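Subject: for your reference before the review

Hello V.,

The reviewers asked for a structural picture of the protein, and I figured it would be easier to keep everything in one thread rather than splitting it across files. Below is the amino acid sequence we used in the manuscript, unchanged from the supplementary table.
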Amino acid sequence: MSYLESIGFFGAFLTGIVIGLFGGGGSILAVPIFVYLFKLNPVLATSYSMFVVGSSAAIGTLINIKKKLIEYKTAVVFTLPALVSVSLTRRFLIPNIPDTLLSFESFDITKEMGLMLFFSSIIMLSSILMMKKPSTKTVTKSSTKKNYGLLIFIGLGVGVLTGLVGAGGGFIIVPALVLFARLTIKQAVATSLIIITFNSLIGFSTDLSFLKMEWSFLIAFYSLCLLQGFLQGLIFLVTLVNQP
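And here is what came back from the structure prediction:
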């Protein structure tokens, strides 16, 4: 095992910490770790990221089912179009992107570079949105009707985003659920996890038809991510047992 690979596996544990603390955001660490430390092709890296993010979100979903925080009707309305777009993106768009996007006299922008540039842009957009001051207006579930039509449109966009860069899209899903489905923050976060679970894992399963997976490596990486998840689960069980 090389020095960079050792750092990469330590990064897997850090990825689990990020997912455990924030319920998402694992792709922000996972994709660069796969590409720059394990030297994987960005297409394969985004596929592995979907597996890691989707599987981790599934654990959070199981906990939220017990807490009864998930708004299932809204999740279905958002998830179905997202599943369609992520599957089409991974099956048809990604394989058909040309190997060379732009060519200059002494420099070419390749498909791999384009994907990483797009991924970087998404990270920057996410950071800008998170730094904005939240609105002081309080949105209640009864204030206006749910805008399911717009949620379907956003779901399609999130599916394309997940398919291209392997990100769950939580930074888009949560605000959309609060603004257009009129969910509370807790409900939006819980509902976003079940959306991310299906979105990411369906995208990953689509890749099985045309990408060769190194399962031993992927399971080893994800096992380190799970260490933090197991700790979170134990804390949750202890809290549940000690409830009066």
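For the response letter, the relevant points are probably these. Residues 3-241 form one domain. Strands lie at 100-103, 108-110.

Happy to draft the paragraph if you're swamped.

O.
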